[in-house]
Amino acid sequence: MRSPLRSEADAFRFVGVVVVAAALIVGAARANTWFGLAVAVVLVGGVSWWYWHQPSPEPPPVAVRHDEHAVHRVLVIANETVGGRALSDVVRERVRGRPAELLVVAPALNSPLRHWTSDEDGARAAAQERVRASVTRLGDLGLTARGEVGDGEPLQAIEDAMRTFGADEIVISTHPAGRSHWLERGLVEEARRRFDLPITHVVVDLEAEGA
Amino acid sequence: MAAVHAEHLEHGSHEHPPEPYYSSRVPPSILGMFLFIASEIMLFGAFFTAYFFVRVVNGTQWPTPPFHLPVFVALVNTCILVTSSFTMHWALQSVKRGNVYGLRAGLLLTFLMGLTFLITQGIEYSRVGFAPKDGAFATIFFCLTGLHGAHVFVGLSILLFMTIRAFRGHFSPEHHHGVEIGGIYWHFVDVMWIVVYMTVYIL
């Protein structure tokens, strides 16, 4: 069962579910009031559990129009690794020998509680600081870059950036496997499914770089 | 789900305004209906809370003697309303298949059944033998069924416009969002009635 508010067909199916559930509850309650209550609790709990454990509907792939640009445009998505040396090296390699424009996007990573209470100031300030440091570092390497703070959801941040920055390729920077939430959630694979662009995955081990 | 198009356009070079962009990834009409129904559930929830306090916490006998609820008439009304969900669904399936006559017949039947429901409820009110002032039981009964009746009235208004538009040929297999949204609302009204009927008349 999908959300009954997605479409009329889903709402219609939900009507059927409610009719059956109501019949079961009434039948049980006729036998014994507490039994009816128990059936109601079990049904509501069971349907809720089933609903919340369903996979989310697959979002549509983003249609990308491939135009020729005078400059090569690279979109860089990174979190804490945005200032990593490995990332700078890969970006420099990707744009070597051709005029390039870089957009660095750091998603404003936030806790779920702060997200739902719209307490985003701290997350955005931290992301802004990461972006500033990254742009400065890329500038030191002779690369023209600008930075933006993106949505806390990295795929959404990519999509938002694609609106205003027609990228020719995307570079996604993450922590190593085992320490990266993005990798655990399959961000790179999902991005490759949704965006018809070359996507480079860079693993930045900040601990190793700092050593 | 709105299709999202990422366009590689030079800054300032596009001649048309960009397509609307929905960050929530949910079309505004669906999101609007979602928020509306969420607020409706809270509204009904307030009335059901009153019902709960009257019946469970205070232990008021339901229905309070010497009153009786017309359970059978309400059951017939329930069947009519549930059937109207089927005709509503038939109408939408018809328009998706390009069957204009099915759309018109489905919407018309849905409207007529909704109207029958409302008229029957009005007759039931006039013959039920008690008024809202006759104690907490009567107040809650009229509030819950009346609140639902008001929603049926709104649904009928929507259905009326949908039916008129269907007869004027405003809907097609490609463009029938007006039927889709109205259908979701109608099914919501149906679901709420099943809950009201079960709690007020049966249990």
Description of the molecule:
The complex is a heterodimer of chains A (211) and B (203). Chain A is α/β, with parallel strands linked by helices and 211 residues long. Chain A folds into 2 domains: 8-52; 72-210, HUPs (Rossmann fold), CATH 3.40.50. Chain A is built from 9 helices and 6 strands, in the order ααββαβααβαβααβα. A 5-stranded parallel beta sheet of chain A has the order 4-3-2-5-6, with helices on both faces. In chain A, α1 runs antiparallel to α2. Chain B has 203 residues and is mostly helical. Chain B has one domain (28-202): Cytochrome c oxidase, subunit III, four-helix bundle (Four Helix Bundle (Hemerythrin (Met), subunit A)). Chain B contains 5 helices and 1 strand, in the order βααααα. Chain B has helices spanning 28-57, 71-96, 100-127, 135-167, 177-202, and one strand at 5-6. The longest helix of chain B is centred in the last third of the chain and has 33 residues, at 135-167. In chain B, 29% of the residues are buried. Classes of the chains: A alpha/beta (211), B mainly alpha (203). Chain A binds chain B through residues 4-9, 11-12, 14-15, 18-19, 22, 25-26, 29, 36, 57, 59-60, 62-67, 69, 151, 156, 159-160, 162-163, 166, 195, and chain B through 1, 3-9, 18, 21, 23, 25, 30, 33-34, 37, 82, 85-86, 88-89, 92, 179-180, 183-184, 187-188, 190-191, 194-195, 198, 202-203.
